[in-house]
Amino acid sequence: MRQLNASGYDMKSQPIPKKQPFRARVREVMDPFEGGPESTWLSLIVDLFILFCIVASCAIILLEFLYPDRADLLLRCEYGFVSIFVVEYFLRWYSAPNRRMYPFEFYALIDLAAILPTLLTLNGQLMLLRMLRGFRLLRLLRLIEFFRYRFLIYRSINLFCTWFGSFNYQYRLQQLRNLFLWVTLAWILGANLLYFTELLNGIEDGPYSLYWQTYWHIIIVLISGIEDKEPVSLLGRVEVTLLLIVGIIIVGMLTAEIVSILVKRIQRIGMVAVKPPNARLSNHIVILGTNSHLDHILHQLYAALKGKYYFLIVSPDAENHKISDPLIYKRVLARSGDPVQMKILDESDVDSALRVAVLAADENLPPQSIDNKTLMITLAVACRRKGIPMVVELKTRESMSYAKQLPGIDFVVGGRYVEYLACQAVLNPGVTEIYYELMNFIREDNELYTIPLPSHLVGKSFQDAQLHFLDYDQESIVLIGVDRSPPDAPHTRFWINSGVTQKGLSNTNLILNAGDNLIVMAYERPFHPAFEKEEIWSGKIIYRI
User: Fold this and answer.
1) In whole angstroms, how far apart are CA 419 and each of 11, 424, 494?
2) Share of the chain above pLDDT 70, in %
């Protein structure tokens, strides 16, 4: 089960997932990687390995025609890859939801047709058949399996383009790219111009008489600024002199660009990566605004989503946001600009985002003014894309009267627990209504209470205690947790939603001890346990009227 301290932090306990049946675990690994929170890294590794085997096995087909003398070695490699594909085929068949119909599915037929030619070659007599050589070309059908892994391939290309685009925009690499383009153009034109100049002047045994050798001489001139070989003709010497000047200029510009990139790299150490305006994101989470809660919200969302989604921070000073943990900020991008502007929202790809969170800025302005700006940002997003799950942080309760005009949006008022509630609202839209009903003391709702452990439940398991309260007809009580806080530090060591303890004990084996307190949900404080008069007089126990 999960252990929390008074601030709500996880006490370094990672819940152990329930064991799935072996067949379900095999299907989870063999299914193509989808990139969602439930996808496993083992599934990604298996997919990458299968893709590598597909490419390598198809390359063997080409190598068989290019190197016929290596046919025996290539055939052994083919047998190795086919063995892998046979194991893959039977694992998919074993873990298929409908094992009877799996052999007739499209990808199953493709897999079988791709491995069948090699399996038939195991019979030496069939190798003598000429038609089998053409039949073996069916192995190229494995390339169709790329369509099975289309999401993984698309996601990989998208991640690479996003990373490279951010790196290119952040360090202004387009100038360096243009410089290399001009160098290549000068190299090709200079080599051809000098070669034909020497050729037209009747020079047949000079250093620039050989076409491909001219390219080597010119690249030395351009990059080093030093003349390698002297042309024979006068016009050729003039051309080399001009190329020498161009080479000196290129070397100077190249040095300046590299120094500029290094300086920018040093200046941006410890800062979040920048999203280029022309780069496109999808299925990401947009955070509009920055404040003191932002870093903790990112930590919580990273832990909940296992780092499988991009986060985009949008604010006027977003590009200067400091990185607190490189692992968490690996999937965080920044875009500077005012979120009220439609251009900035368009560059933030709000239309393809999963969630949007609007944070109240930490500015030296009246709280009502900050809320007005926050509501303007909320209206801009809501008008652009209706129905997108949003959570909005406000500074004052008075602003909630305006928030009522925006149904379907989760609003939270700043306070101690706003960052936790904002994280939950991003993950679970509508949770603020549950929070309101849970924390609001009205007679129509259940509340959370801490009660002493009844003596007859000492030594019982947590599951036995849950069943006891379910069978208790006098009052409606639901047991949801255990509180084992020391007397001098109440509510600092407790478990909610018991699943697995920090020590790995299941709630069936969790034995309740004398002195434990139970966290229950009830309509009003239960009378089930016996309270001491001192507890009531001291104010520790308050009855609702």
Assistant:
1) 18, 9, 21
2) 74
